[in-house]
What we know:
- It is built from seven helices and no strands.
- It has one domain (2-142).
- By secondary structure, the chain is an all-alpha fold.
- The longest helix has 26 residues, at 2-27.
Amino acid sequence: MITKLEKQVVISTELIDKMISTFFINKLGEKEIKIINSLTDLGKFNFNHKVNLFCDLVHMSSINAAKFKVYTKINNEVVLNDNLLNPSYLKGLNNYFPFLVNTYLLTEDAFSIQQKLTFAINSLIDDVVKLTKVHTEKPEIYYQKKVKNIFSS
């Protein structure tokens, strides 16, 4: 069960990384792309940095930004090969365990903590992939009225 979830995290991370990279290529100037590419080549601009920059550039709700933040923490756990579904780990990470449970579980089901975490993490993965797609394809929709779109010329 854990390896299936870890594989899903890896596949989703690759997809999210590709969408965000394409977004940067399409929306940033040539000079900024060269900087990002050189930082990536030096290993100083990893997935977490891309996600953080993406969240800073694209207007999104604080709950959606929090979903990206929690996703990057989970992705780090997969990369570090730690036990992803260890409840004590998630409870100890600035209340991410309650965030996952409160955001993705509607009722207090009789499931085990591991089953709840598996369901919540799967839901988070699906959510972050969808949010990335929405924000990379039409980011200007999410700007408030009378706010200048920094990507238009």
